[in-house]
Amino acid sequence: MKRTIPLLITGLAGIVLVLSYFFPFSEGWGEEAAIWFDVLASVAFVLGGGNLLKIHLQKVSDRRAGWGYSVITLLAFAITLVVGLSKWGVHPSEQFPAYAWSGSYREIGSPFWWLYEYAFKPLTATMFAMLAFYVASAAFRAFRAKNTEAILLLGTAFIILLGRTAAGPALTSWLPDSLAGLKIENLTVTIMKVANTAGNRAIMIGIALGIASTSLKVLLGVDRSHLGGGEG
Amino acid sequence: MIERLKTLDRRWIFLLVFLSVSLPILFEAQFPETPTALARSTFDAIESLPSGSKILLSYDYDPASEGELGPMATAFAYHCAAKGHKLYFMALWPVGSQMIDDTIANVIRADFPQMEYGRDYVNLGFKSGNEGVIKVVVTDFRQLYTTDAFGTDIDDIPMCQGVTSVQDMDLVINVSAGYPGTKEWVQYAVTAYPDQIKLVGGCTGVQAPLLYPYIPDQLPGLLGAIKGAAEYEKLVVDHYHLEDNPKYHEGLRRMGPQLVAHLLMILLIIAGNVVYFAEKRGGGQ
Which of A5, A9, A49, B236 is deepest in the core (most CB within 10 A)? Predict the structure, then answer.
């Protein structure tokens, strides 16, 4: 039962979605399945929170390596959740002044807004910005012209790197109009439009065929990996 | 020299990256931008619509990619507002709501105080479900959006009356940092209703190559990263005479650090290869 019911739900929802794409009479069924999916996606946030608690509480309780980070994660999670759900420091909205919780949880100046503005925002931006440092270090240490393919990749990288800035047009502005195609900004466009598009289309078609065959296996219950391990 | 490069501490590289980004910011280095065909077609898609057209703006990004996408989100909102379009904001990313708040505060409330909430623009907020949300709203908006982001009944919002689905929008603009984003909008909205839904977008640099296969039929306009934003800004600034408003030059300003950082990257790759070939010649690897 533990495996049969999820298999039936998967198969039914999948078949309904496929049918709804091809047959107008079943369009509403597909919409219904999509709404159920959205409801489940919202519930998944609760499951995700529960899972986060379980994993990190276990790590803290077992005093595993790095358990201190888990304490920080749990504290950050708990504080954000309490502050956000309780709408701490939020004023009632002008529309419903009689209801204490009617204000927006994102109200400027509220503790939740403060957490977002001064903790979440700079931390995520910093994490992303640090990529530039690691990419530069990797470019120096790993990007070697070892063979023909690597040389082609290097040449393309140089053209794109220059073409995506004002340096590219400045470097080749002296070229006559008859050789306009060789100007770096035009070469960049050609690489993106021709080589990149052709390669990506081939990959996308391959992936689509793979997804179609895998989906069919999932719908027919042949592939049950999405149900996780264990016997039902 | 080669020996020093061989054993170069990576902290020197980090310092060079820091300088290459910070110096152009400090000295406010700006370079000219020439809009490409893609930036022009994005601009034209908004400009060619008659005033009062309905535009759905889906802000599917977060503060991590604000550096790349913030300027184009600002420019999109300005362009639509200046043209007199009706703006419907939504988000498929949880913190997309905050990105919408920022844009509304910095662009609409600051530069278009005459625009009225509910009549000229509305914030529909975030909905969970990724592409599932797109799949539903392309046929029935009200199945998911019964209220706006502040809990107001959607039927009480004047500009939402008569809007039944995304097909009623004259244009969809998506600012995308990944999944779900422009790719999902193409696959689940434009592909399903090619005659009814028109989409233009802006995305991060790593996403742009993956979206090129959809150009021009499914995606007539695309702004790739800060370069695309700068080109689009240039068109908006020139057309609406915003030369003196620094808020709408952010993309152009951020191209300065990008230029120097890209040049540094090229120099580092060349230096790395010089070391590699010197080692090879010296009987190394």
Answer: B236
Judging contacts by C-beta atoms under 8 Å, the chain B residues touching residue A139 are 265, 268-269, 272
Q: List chain A residues with CB under 8 Å of B213.
A: 197, 200-201, 204
| Cα distance between residue A189 and residue B212, in whole Å | 11
Closest residue, chain B, to A190 (C-alpha) = B212
Please identify among residues 202-221 of chain B the ones whose CB lies closer than 8 Å to any CB of chain A. 205, 208-210, 212-213, 215
pLDDT in tens, B243-271: 889 999 999 999 999 999 999 999 999 99
Distance CA B180, CA A114 (A): 27
pLDDT digits over B39-89, tens only? 999 999 999 999 999 999 999 999 999 999 999 999 999 999 999 999 999
Put simply, the answer to whether B255 touches A166 (Cβ < 8 Å) is yes
Residues from chain B contacting residue A180 (CB–CB below 8 Å): none
Question: Which pairs with CB-CB distance under 8 Å and at least 24 residues apart come from A156-161?
Answer: A156/A191, A156/A195, A157/B269, A158/B266, A158/B269, A159/A184, A159/A187, A159/A188, A159/A191, A160/A188, A160/A191, A160/A192, A161/B262, A161/B265, A161/B266
Cβ contact B172:B199 at 8 Å: yes
Q: What's the rounded mean pLDDT across residues B168-173? A: 96
Size of interface A-B (CB pairs under 8 A): 157
Domain residue limits, chain B:
2-27+259-281, 37-243
> What type of residue is B46?
I
| ipTM given for this complex | 0.83
Residue A149, class by beta-carbon neighbours within 10 Å (0-12 exposed, 13-18 middle, 19+ buried)? exposed
CATH of B37-243, one of 3.40.390, 3.40.50, 2.60.40, 3.30.70: 3.40.50
Q: Does B90 touch chain A (CB under 8 A)?
A: no
- pLDDT, residue A25, reads 85
DSSP label at residue A90: P
Chain A residue at shortest CA distance from B101:
A106
Measure in Å the smallest separation between the Cα of B50 and chain A Cα atoms.
Answer: 31
Among candidates B18, B17, B65, B253, which has minimal Cα distance to A121? B65
Q: How far is the alpha carbon of B14 from chain A, nearest alpha carbon, in Å?
A: 5
Residues of chain A contacting residue B188, judged by C-beta atoms under 8 Å apart: none
Read off the tokens for B230: 């700068």
In 3D space, the residue among A144, A175, A44 whose CA is nearest the CA of residue B268 turns out to be A144
- Give the whole-number percent of chain B exceeding pLDDT 70: 99
